[in-house]
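Assemble and predict.
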Amino acid sequence: MKDPCFLTAAEAGRQIRSGSLTSEALIRSCLDRIAARDPAIKAWLHIDPAQALAQAREVDKRPPSSPVHGLAFGVKDVFDTRDLPTTQNSPLYQGHQPAKDAACVGVVRHSGAVILGKTDTVEFAGGGRKAATRNPYNLAHTPGGTSSGSAAAVADFQVPFAFGTQTSGSHIRPASFNGIYAMKPTWGVVSREGFKQLAAMLDTVGWYGRSAEDLAMVGETFRLPGFSGSKPEAVKGLKIALCRTPRWNKIEPAGEKALKTAAERLEKAGAVIEELQLPETFAGLNDAQDTILQGEAAVAFLPDYLASNDRLHVEFRDKVENKTGITPKAMADAYDLAGASRPAFDRIASKYDAVLTPSAPGEAPEGLGWTGDWVFNVMWTLLHVPCIAIPCTVGSKGLPVGIQIVGPRFGDGRLLRVAAAVAAAIDVEERPRTVQ
Amino acid sequence: MKDPCFLTAAEAGRQIRSGSLTSEALIRSCLDRIAARDPAIKAWLHIDPAQALAQAREVDKRPPSSPVHGLAFGVKDVFDTRDLPTTQNSPLYQGHQPAKDAACVGVVRHSGAVILGKTDTVEFAGGGRKAATRNPYNLAHTPGGTSSGSAAAVADFQVPFAFGTQTSGSHIRPASFNGIYAMKPTWGVVSREGFKQLAAMLDTVGWYGRSAEDLAMVGETFRLPGFSGSKPEAVKGLKIALCRTPRWNKIEPAGEKALKTAAERLEKAGAVIEELQLPETFAGLNDAQDTILQGEAAVAFLPDYLASNDRLHVEFRDKVENKTGITPKAMADAYDLAGASRPAFDRIASKYDAVLTPSAPGEAPEGLGWTGDWVFNVMWTLLHVPCIAIPCTVGSKGLPVGIQIVGPRFGDGRLLRVAAAVAAAIDVEERPRTVQ
């Protein structure tokens, strides 16, 4: 029998509901795995094993009341937790202990999940200090960012679920680099309260798992739209748009192979693949996202700048001081391009069951100083649409590479069902082994 | 000489900078006023006089470094404060002590302002329990809501500045009911972090003062767009659009008189007034705002619902349970109508120096059970545009009535300068005396 830490959340949840596994046993297994692996992977910033086990024992006393009952979450250290420090990986917040859980933490905690610990992150999920976390398939490579620790911990079987965030490409890209599943839901359908704001129009809470079913369990817990009356989707007959995006010139061989392989496997399984060329105006969305990020981050970090200018990383000081020279007109234009593009994309996406598109240019880059390019993520973040990352192939460096599927806003429930069908068709290779 | 509490923030600031007033003396005067008046007005939920005085003494040791140096803020009790409880006027948060200031509190605190205390609010700034606060001009009347205590405290000379919020009409309407000035800036230019989220696309931080100059001091502290290279505006030659809005049928005689009087006084002072008819599609914005509020509040209160369903007020439980039946399509349609209307309004507003429009239907209603109608506010909130409330007339019940001026997004600095000119022309009547 597998140690419980190696079960997907879906498998562990079934065993907990049937009485063959306790939350306490699952947490013990995760803690053992972390103890053995963290010196190499460095995914965690704060863990309190006794407290996690105490939570699990409490949960075990209650009957399961939600899909995540008894399961464990890692929490990116940009979300407030009432029982663990929240440091943002920033010198300004070392030892900071919030009084209250962030909204997303509260939702799963009050649904019977165990908060296992806080995961390492790029500073403020936005820049400055990198996470110390390493890619579990090759320690010389980045796990991606900014949700570095969350993605690596789930990939390395240290925790079944973890929360991340995406403002540019911080959530979906690390999923690809770590061979795991990720969901970035529609903007606004999961509360960001208790997350250190980076950019109000962009920040989105997401989660990682090791199967499409795992992602759906969290989606159901958050009552995402489109769950009621759901029936599983069959891959046969699915109509999938293949979208190379206006930034296809940034694709690498491994990313190209993953997208091509995904399309071929889907076609072989009976799906219909159609090339999708986005309207020309969409070419401006990546720049619009960057404008909004710069302008909104200047607002977000003003309190920190005034409180402790010298300890705020220069990347954030520069934003507050508007070193890139963002103008009010540029902000309004960026908001309005996005505002016009969202319904346009929804109309396009609604003609398909999903839009298939890269998660990242290719494999995880070597080194920890660069977490990889978010060029294939920012447009979707700005469009506010749900995105689901699905593992697909292995690149020439032996690292996993995934793709993402995208749907119209509020199509979250439907997209999760399509993801399960797509995953069954394309996630068919053995994942490379994590380092021993 | 006036007791310092009766000075506008601008007057007190000048005296502090010249050395003729200390922050400590100002705070003492405010605390004395509160001690005398709070039993009747009930604007405050938490005050710690010793702590406020200690802050003032610290501030007095430092040279002024910002426009709000040494001045005092009341803070609506939906914003986290590190040194005072934050209860949301909700049974769920009684005694809750945050570990960190909300972003807006941090910005003014780190700019040398004193946090005087927390003001009463309608529960979660959204519904449920009403504030106990009374209208300082007539205790039998509401001060409006949801920023009830903040508006009444500023009107009653208990504090020069106070923070409020506007998601529907919670900030501008109480300004009119209390004969004070208010600014709701462009959405996104002031961070809402540390505010209990109600609706992500709508929530806006605002502030109250007793002059247009007061409002500009806070605007400058927050580095609002349009401050650099500013020159005062003269009222002569200003081009003002008179906008009755698609809901003019809701106006009451006192509101009609205030708008008419404002236009007449402006015209007399040399401004050009033009009637503005908004495009027909704008008639749908009020309903769109309500749809978004219902849909986003369901997301915001899910953690509280799961944590303590029985203590969460039924108005919020109903939102989480989607009792109004908001559909995903309705949400997307509402977002998209707003997305299309924002640039359309900016184009209209840019032809004028300001748009003149009602702040509220009329005088503050009698009783504390109904805080008045937000019908003249919600469209502007959804459009994300800056709004400035300016006092104008007195209604037949002896209560003050104001108007608001509105500008294009990111026109905050300019609108503040126009507000100073407009105020000089229209805020020319003696305010009724507050109750003795």
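Residues 43 and 149 of chain B are 4 Å apart (CA to CA).
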